[in-house]
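thought: user wants a sequence for this fold. calling inverse folding tool.
action: design(structure=
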C-alpha cells in the first residue's frame, strides 16, 4: 500500500535520491530551480508517497508571483520511482497536491512540464502566455492552471519567487553537494 502524506524532515535524503534517479544532477541547472532554491515549499504543499517505509514519490509547490502583485504557486518537481512508473501514482499525487492547494485558498499554479501529461489536470499554455521565467525555458512547456476562475486572467510579467527563505540549516547537505557537482 502507498501512503501519500506531508513531507517530513526525515524524507529529505530519500527525496533527493529519488530526484537524482529521475532527473539527474542537471535538474539543478533548470530555470525552475532558480525559483525554488533557498526557499521553503509552500506550507502544507510538500507531499511524499511511501511504500513500506520507502519514499517512492514526491511533489512540492512553491510561492511565486505571476507578474506584479499576483500570487501563484509553482509546481515541481513531481517525481515517481522509475520502478513503479505507469501505475498512476503521479496522477494521484497531482490530484492530492492540487486539491490541497485549492483547499488552502490558492488561486493559480504554474509549471514547466510535458503539456500532454499536465493538460489532463487542466494545465494550459495559454494561461501562462503573458508570463516569462528568469532564465531559459521552453515556451510550449510553460503551463498555467486556475484553481480559482480568473486567477491568471491578464497575468503578465516576470515570475519571481516569494516564498519564505529557508534557514541555512534546512538546506540538505545532499542537495548542496549535487549543486556543486552540477556547476
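)
observation: tool returned 183 residues.
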Amino acid at each position: 500500500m502507498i501512503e501519500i502524506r506531508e513531507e517530513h524532515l526525515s524524507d529529505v535524503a530519500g527525496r533527493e535520491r529519488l530526484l537524482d534517479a529521475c532527473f539527474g544532477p542537471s535538474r539543478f541547472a533548470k530555470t525552475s530551480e532558480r525559483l525554488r532554491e533557498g526557499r521553503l515549499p509552500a506550507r502544507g504543499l510538500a507531499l511524499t508517497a511511501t511504500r513500506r517505509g520507502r519514499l517512492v514519490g514526491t511533489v512540492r509547490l512553491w510561492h511565486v508571483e505571476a507578474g506584479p502583485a499576483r500570487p501563484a504557486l509553482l509546481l515541481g518537481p513531481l517525481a515517481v520511482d522509475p520502478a513503479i512508473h505507469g501505475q498512476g501514482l503521479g496522477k494521484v499525487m497531482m490530484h492530492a497536491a492540487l486539491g490541497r492547494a485549492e483547499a488552502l485558498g490558492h488561486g493559480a499554479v504554474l509549471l514547466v512540464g510535458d503539456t500532454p501529461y499536465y493538460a489532463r489536470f487542466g494545465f494550459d499554455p495559454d494561461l501562462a502566455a503573458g508570463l516569462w521565467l528568469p532564465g531559459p525555458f521552453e515556451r510550449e512547456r510553460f503551463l498555467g492552471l486556475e484553481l480559482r476562475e480568473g486567477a491568471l486572467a491578464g497575468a503578465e510579467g516576470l515570475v519571481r519567487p516569494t516564498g519564505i527563505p529557508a534557514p541555512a540549516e534546512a538546506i540538505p547537505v545532499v542537495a548542496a553537494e549535487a549543486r556543486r557537482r552540477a556547476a
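thought: summarizing for user.
answer: Here is the designed sequence. Residues 177-183 have pLDDT under 50 and may be disordered.
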